[in-house]
Amino acid sequence: MSRLTLDDLLDQLEQARQIAIEERKPTAMIQATATMAKLTGLDKPVIKDVHADDVQSISDLMNELSSEQAAITYKNIMG
């Protein structure tokens, strides 16, 4: 008895997707594609590694604004 692999599952889903395309069943095609994405992890957001040295503080960002821009931003934040 052979074990089912990820490649086997993806092949079967691709076959199902092709049948859905041929039979003009977009919902089934989308479902097969979404399932493939889930199996391969492509449905999850990518988290970028950010170093603390690369991040500006709010005060640094505010200092880059003109006083008029800073006033507008403050008003928008505070209401």
Automatic annotation (TrEMBL):
Domain of life from the UniProt record: Bacteria
Annotated protein name in UniProt: Uncharacterized protein
